[in-house]
Amino acid sequence: MRRDAIGRLHALLRSALPAGFRRAHGQEMERVFRERLRDETRRGTWRVAVVWTGEALDLAGTGIRLRMSWWREGEGSMGGWTDDLKSALRSVGRSSGFAAFAVGTLALGVGATITFASFLDGVVLRPIDFPEADRLVMAWRTQDSGFMVSPELSIRDRMRAADVFDGVAALGWREMARSTDDGPEVLSAGLIDEALPGLAGQPPVLGRYFDATDLAGAGAPVVVLSEKYWKRAFGADRDILGRAVTLEGEPRTVVGVAPEALRAPGPGHPPIDVWLPLPGDGSQPGVNVFARLREDVTLDHAQERVRALDLSAAENEASPWKTRLVPVSEFASGRLRNALKAVGAAVALLLLIACINVANLLLARGDARRKETAVRAALGAGRVRLGRELLLESTLVSVAASVLGLGLATGALGLVHRLRPESLQILDRAHLDPTVTLAAVGVAIATALAFGVIPLLSRVRTRPGVVLSQRRGTADGDSVGLRRLLLAGEIALSFALLAGAIQIAAELDRVRSRDPGLAVDELLAVSVRLPDWRFADDAGREDALVRIRRRLQGLPGVEAATVASGSPPAAGIFFGDASAEGQPPTEDAGKAVPLFGNSVEPGYFATVGQAVLEGRAFTEEDVRADPRPILLGESAARKYFPDGGAVGGHFRLGEGDVWRPVIGIVRDVWATGSATDPGYPQLYMLRDEGSARVVLVRASDPGAVAGKVRDAVRAVDAEIPVVEMRTVASRYREALAREHLIGVLLAAFAVTAAALAAVGLYGVAVQISVRRVREFGIRISLGAGRRSIFALTLRGGATTLVLGLLAGTGLAWAGLRFLKAGVAGLDGAHPGAFLAAMLVLGATTLLATGVPAARAARTDPVEAMRTE
Amino acid sequence: MPRDTPPTPLSMAILVALGREDLHGYALLREVEERSGGRLSPGTGSLYAALQRLMEEGLIIESPERPTADDDARRRYYRITREGRAAVVEEAARMDRLLADARAHGLIPARGS
Asked: B26 and A31 in contact by Cβ < 8 A?
């Protein structure tokens, strides 16, 4: 029949019908339609549209009905389910290779999904256990520069007057040393007011929290233990109430035990060991203020009310600081939310790939079993019966995969908890929640079934007579085409994942290789605690610091040691309306701007290896000078002295400050250690007597020195605890922990995805070459070279690859938007990452299709013709 | 062939149309349309799905002969089988019983009243 426009359009509409039906009736249908169209056109040209529309609707509806009819036939005959189950079990058991692969593939997808869903639930959706956490806000003090700092306690009282909250509470944090027989133990102490436990909805496990007398500091000193510390240090002794615990040299009576669920929300807090009353006099410098919005109040309205109170507070009129309300959920998970989005997309892709692979497998198996199915159908097994059995098989596979996936998820969560970086304590909140697990398993089974149904539909329609008379000749076009399409999709998804992972790895590498500007590999940062109760004044503290520094300096292997207020990265930060004398005002003049830097002592720059570019470093004479001189970082010098002349100039931090002589310019260090660090202006001052808590020790092998540090400090004073001891290099690594975690996760997912795609490709290539063995035999005996057979087989894989790569490039491009949100410092698409991903997948495809292709090329024509 | 569900109106109309003579697809379509007064006007999808099903159930077959007058030798004709005629009779009887039942319950006015 000739193919004119009518023929082509009708054929297109007919594609809604099952292939077998099309083959049987397609030509007749077209003929009938033409005749009808001819007759109707005589009745009026407008009828043409009516006839076409009716035909299109009819064909689409018939297509759906025909595909569904096998299922409807079985209504009312529920018998035989147990037989079906037995048969399905037998069938799965018989082909253990298929079962193992299908279960394994799907389990990977399910495991990744459950793991991820647990993170999503624990970290993003419910980051804290406070009841009605969605209405919980945190107050911060902020200014135009966007920097946020903890508010003073007075902000809590201001918010309590705002009548838009159900409750307002404050929480502070500090380290405290507990004296024990084995020396001092550093505990993390939470300082709370009377309202916080109520806001958290956490009654005490034992005893009570604090009352007005405790908070006023009027009664005997008291303490509430955390459940964890109570178990760890006192073996969960129920007679603990009334006993004394010595904190900072002061005995405190234990009045209660707080449940584990009472905790400080937010990623930055270490777990709390003991709870103390928050002093009402504001002596705690900076607290977290929590408030629950009244049910009828929006965040914007509350923000307006608080801002109005800010303005009416007289002392505040000239202050650039504003109170900003931030939903706790947003703060607690912070930038991790974006990271989880990126990883979430990767997980979804992986699950999709796993499902595609299983669908492909079912399709292949369906083909392989066409004869078996046909024989059984010919022997009288109803189509429904067969379909039901096949569906049971998919269910068995997906249930087994879910169980295995659950195991994988448990292992993965354990692994992440063990490997998680110190600063991402919030990740510990991810655990296997029954609801989450059920939901994830449900989704996984539903997905598996949905994909299992695709091959089912095409399989049960097979007609016994047709199939049994078929010879094993050429590949069955329909199902191979479908599988190729699925595989192309798989390649596209793995490509997107691979490109993303490679990009992040390259980016991380670039960030990591940034020169921090000091000798990080040779530096050990030792922070100590000088308890107030032990040292009466700054002179005493200074004496202890100097003795510790000297003691550490004397350790074998140590080259130098210096005392500073902090250790890079994020050593210290100064705030102020910074300006240089006699220089034009900077663009942010009049605002309090942040300057990174450190408070140091003479010898600091030489010890840490930070280069002095111009002028000179601090000397002992500078300590006695008034005003004391300062050094600027190179970008600060450029910013405040645009025309040069910084050395010899004067600089101050706001009007309240004195003009300080600038004696030198030092090289900028990587101030924050984060990927986004734009190179902040830096400022270095001399530390005050008795201030600073960190001793930076320079040694060619800091690890070897670390073992002797604690004893050295104890030798100076047994009551001085070493709070933290780490190499500066590890502190820099820590700053990139989040990016690193995402990189590792993405890489793991991408490698898994590529492996799954390779297995899928291999399976289809093997199957096609097996099915075409007869055709190859004929071709070879007709004189086709083995090389051309090889090429023929490979071509299929190559087409799939190209299709997949094209689609994948688009996908990866779109996916980069996600990655950029999750990984700071990621800028634009690197063509290199795309190229690398293409190479990896190209090689994989070549390998996966090349092996079967080589086997096909070795086809023995005589053997091939005899097969069947 | 025993069947648990009554034939659809379209299947019934096809069987009835084939009662007098063998017909090809388009003639069958026109016949069904005219007999139902336009109430049944299937597209080719519905028509051939019904034909396929009737063939599977053995109620019709493709006709081995074709009328001498036909201009197109490739056209397929359909013929009702003995089982097909039996199915029509059975369905007609079922409808008759239904009608009588409905009359007895006063849902439909009795004839002549």
From this structure: yes
The per-residue DSSP string of A472-540 comes to S-S--HHHHHHHHHHHHHHHHHHHHHHHHHHHHHHHHHHHHTS--SS-GGGEEEEEE---TTT--SHHH
Contact between B45 and A29 (Cβ < 8 Å): yes
- Find out whether A152 and A267 touch, Cβ atoms under 8 Å: no
Q: Which residues of B touch A66 (CB under 8 A)?
A: 49
| Helix residue spans in A679-830 (DSSP H) | 702-716, 728-735, 737-771, 773-781, 786-822
The answer to whether A746 touches A501, Cβ cutoff 8 Å, is: yes
Rounded CA gap, A686 and A565, in Å? 10
Taking the C-alpha atoms of residue A585 and residue A590, their distance in angstroms, rounded to an integer, is: 9
Whole-angstrom distance, CA of residue A564 vs CA of residue A694: 5
pLDDT at residue A468 is higher than 60: no
**Number of CB pairs, chain A paired with chain B, less than 8 A apart:** 58
What residue type is assigned to position A377 of the chain?
A: A
* Residues near A186 by beta carbon (within 8 Å), at least 6 away in sequence: A175, A176, A177, A178, A529, A721, A723
Residues A140-168: what's their mean pLDDT?
81
Interatomic CA distance for residues A196 and A573, integer angstroms? 30
Cα dist from A786 to A531, A772, A780, A790, A792, whole Å: 84, 14, 7, 6, 10
User: Which residue has better confidence, A402 or A664?
Assistant: A664
In contact, A197 and A262? CB cutoff 8 Å? yes
Evaluated on CA atoms A121, A124, A127, A133, the torsion sign reads negative
Cα A397 to Cα A385: distance, rounded to the nearest angstrom: 19
Whether residue A823 contacts residue A502, with contact meaning beta carbons closer than 8 Å, is answered with no
Mutation for testing the A interface, residue in B34, B44, B51 having most A CBs under 10 Å: B44
> Is there a contact between A427 and A420 (Cβ–Cβ < 8 Å)?
yes
How much is the pTM?
A: 0.59
Mark which residues 54-93 of A lie under 8 Å from B by CB: 54-55, 57-63, 65-66, 76
Each residue's pLDDT tens digit, A162-185: 888 988 988 888 888 888 877 778
Measuring CA to CA, which residue among A54, A76, A56, A48 is closest to residue A16?
Answer: A56
CB contact under 8 A, B51 and A25: yes
* Structural contact between residues A326 and A137, judged by C-beta atoms closer than 8 angstroms: yes
Residue A556 is classified by DSSP as: T
Query: Which residues of B touch chain A, with CB atoms under 8 Å apart?
Result: 4, 25-26, 29, 41-49, 51-52, 75-76
Asked if the Cβ–Cβ distance from B48 to A63 is below 8 Å, we say: no
ipTM over 0.95: no
Scan for tokens 């309202």, then name that residue. Answer: A195
Task: Locate the chain B residue with the closest alpha carbon to A52.
Answer: B43
Give A381 to chain B, closest Cα distance, Å: 15
d(CA A363, CA A507): 40
**Which of A191-205, A307-321, A621-635, B81-95 comes out lowest in average pLDDT?**
A307-321
Omega before A203 cis (within 30°)?
no
Within 8 A by CB and 6+ apart from A284, the residues are A153, A172, A174, A191, A278
Contact (CB<8Å) B47/A61: no
Higher model confidence: residue A15 or residue A258? A258
How do residues A65-114 score in pLDDT, each as one tens digit? 776 664 444 433 444 555 666 666 666 666 666 677 777 877 887 787 77
Contact A35 B26 (CB under 8 A): yes
CB-based contact, A395 to chain B, within 8 Å: no
Which tokens is A308 given?
A: 């109005």
Q: Are strands A593-600 and A682-686 parallel, antiparallel or unpaired?
A: parallel
CA A754 from chain centre, in angstroms, equals 20
Return the bridge partners of A207, or none: A256
